[in-house]
Amino acid sequence: MKTVKYETSAGALVALLDTRSFAFADLYTITLAGGGTSLRFTTADTDIGYGGDVWTHAGPLIDQKSSRATAHWKIGLDTDTWQFTVAPRAVDPISGAAYPDKIGSVPWLAALQGGALDGAVVLVDRAFVAAWPDFPRSPVVAPTGVVNIFTGRVATVDLGRTTAVISVNSHLELLDQQMPINVYQAGCRHTLFDAGCQLAASSFAVSGTAAAGSMPRVIVSNIGAPSGSGTFTLGSLVMTSGLNAGFARSIRSWSPSTGGASGSIILLSAFPYAVAAGDTFTAYPGCDKQLATCGLFGNTANFGGQPYIPPPETAT
Fold first, then answer.
1. Pair 118, 229 in one domain
2. Which of 30, 99, 211, 246 is the most exposed, fewest CB within 10 Å of its CB?
3. How many domains does the chain have?
4. Is position 191 within any domain?
5. What is the per-residue pLDDT across 60-96, written as a single tens digit (0 to 9) for each?
6. 296: how many CB neighbours lie within 10 A of its CB?
């Protein structure tokens, strides 16, 4: 059996499965690129919650009975796949509101067309209960145990008129990169703010507000220069309000404000939705991986010019 992710007490899930009398539902956790927003849905007809999180049944229909999720597992290094159907509601049957299922403030299908799930991470867990409670049910049902069924990144999204079919590849696809584990080069092999760099991104974050004239790929703002490298070029920008709240993009170049003229941040790829004046964001500095730049951050002790040698394994 898979490793238990959660259970009410040690051995509770195994004891339940041994009874051969139980019910289960799948829990879908979709974390958007940049890690800013997580969407949680369940295939059950009631909300399920544990660990402080709740998976709602009131959102779009996930994994319908007529089109059950399909998966492919194979022994070896081949990429595993998971495919499921999402059917957002066109009208809320109670309030009558149109397109009640949204990602942020944008209807699901429109958001998918704009690339909202590009690079998103999907976790599919299975929650087990002894039996579903009778109606009326409690607002949130607590499972006896939960196991992870599949984890991966969104590969493709096929849109229809009323549904979308989402295909997810396991993280084994990362092994498709033809590259050795260590790359010898003049520049630092670490990524700014990663475990090897050891700097904290929060220490260098700068908040800003988009000004008039901003576009999905160009953010006009008088944001001040960051500490560290002193430039946002090669850094990243995360929107914290507006239609793009929770989305992150890499920064291609930055022009600071001079002579009364507003500065601008040009992104490597555009946000999926329009950026309005007043939308807020958080920007992080960039690093060109040179030793001199590492010195600006005061971090030359962690400059990754040498290959990483893992520590020896400890005998158990």
1. no
2. 99
3. 2
4. no
5. 888 766 556 677 777 777 788 999 999 998 888 778 8
6. 16
